[in-house]
Each structure stands twice: as structure tokens, then as C-alpha cells.
Amino acid sequence: EMNGSGKAVLLAESFVGDEPFAVVYGDDIVDNDGKRPAIGQLIDAYYNAGVSILGAQTVSRNDATKYGVVIPGQVKGRYTEMKGIIEKPSIEELPSTLASLGRYVLTPDIFEALKNTKPSKNGEVYLTDAINILAKTVGVYAYDFEGKRYDTGDKFGYVMANIEYGLKHNEIKEELKNYIKELAKKL
After folding, report:
1. Contact 57, 148 (CB under 8 A)
2. How far apart are CA 187 and CA 184, in angstroms?
3. N or C: at which end does the chain have fewer Cβ atoms within 10 angstroms?
4. Which residue intervals of the chain are DSSP H helices?
5. How far apart are CA 52 and CA 105, in angstroms?
6. Are 69 and 100 in contact (CB under 8 A)?
7. Would you put residue 91 in left (φ > 0), alpha (ψ -120 to 50) or beta?
8. What phi and psi values does residue 99 have, to the nearest 5 degrees?
9. What is the pLDDT of residues 81-110, one digit of tens each?
């Protein structure tokens, strides 16, 4: 059933218990060139901050309207205190260009927040609404993770990810390079 990202996370409550846990959306791929993966960076950030961590990066103003955008508080290095988050705001409503990008390390507090989150007009319960509750009560930080993110929910982002990962793959990179060069001659 399409009940929203919040209801999906709530299904994990009995498995998670009272431990922090990671949520990773499948339509985002992050390549950090062999360095610490994005989710590993968020786990480290959680152990430093002790509260839920939202993975984020700065995006263009036009792109920000496609994501949940952080309402920022104090900034310390890669950490931004979250005053809240607005899901897919208009350009006029943008509180920042720090966008939530499908990676979270959440504390079990999220489950109570989800239970207290009212469904949206379409009947779905959104994780971002529950994160807003935590931001106003126990605190949440957005962490600006390192790495190149591909939005594979976007057709062009999906193609870019496939090409760039293909060019890194030892078995096919030469064949792919030759293909791209031949294709470019026809453009």
C-alpha cells in the first residue's frame, strides 16, 4: 500500500528496538571515489552529535524545489542544526538550498513522532513530517556528506550514473569509452 515513507519506516520499529538505524532511499546513488561512503559519514556524524542525522548537500535553487529543504539553524562545519524541513518548496519559499538526499541515521524517537504525525491530504504519512517533530523537540542535524550524488529517480541522473560507473568498471570501461567516442562523432 502507498502509505508514505513514514509508514514504511514505522514498519521497522519492532526490528530496530531502541537502537539508532539507517534509512537509505533507493533512488539516490552516492559515489565517494573509494573514500568513506555517505552512510558511513552519517553514522560517524550520529556518534559525534548523538541525535538523528539527515544526509544533505547544497543544490541549485531550481533543483532545491524537487527535495525536502532544510530550515537551517546554527552551522558548524558540515553540521547544520535543523529548525525544520520543507518538502518540495517553491523557489519563493526556499529557506536554504541544503537538500535532504535520501540518507538518514535516525534514533528510535522517530517512531513516536511517526505515530503522532497526521497523514497528508493524500493519506500518506511522510518521514519529513516526523523529522520536523524531532527537530522541534530533541533536535536533528543535517550533515553535508561528501560524494557525488546521482538522482536515479530522474531519467538523466540515471543515465549519468550508469555511464560514470561504467567508465570506472575495469571489464567494460575501454569498450564503453570507444562506444562514447563513436557516438559523439554522430552528434
Report:
1. no
2. 5
3. C
4. 5-10, 13-16, 38-49, 61-64, 109-115, 127-137, 155-168, 173-185
5. 6
6. yes
7. alpha
8. -105, 140
9. 999 999 999 999 999 999 999 999 999 999
- Centre a 10 Å sphere on the Cβ of residue 98 and count the other Cβ atoms it contains: 25
Prediction pTM value: 0.91
**For residues 12 and 5, what is the distance between their CA atoms, to the nearest angstrom?**
12
User: And the C-alpha cell for 110?
Assistant: 522517530
Q: What is the per-residue pLDDT across 42-67, written as a single tens digit (0 to 9) for each?
A: 999 999 999 999 999 999 999 999 99
C-alpha–C-alpha distance, residues 147 and 145, integer Å? 7
Measured CA to CA, the distance from residue 20 to residue 45 in angstroms comes to 12
At 182, list the grid cell. Answer: 563513436
| Cell numbers standing for residue 41 | 559519514
In eight-state DSSP terms, residue 139 is -
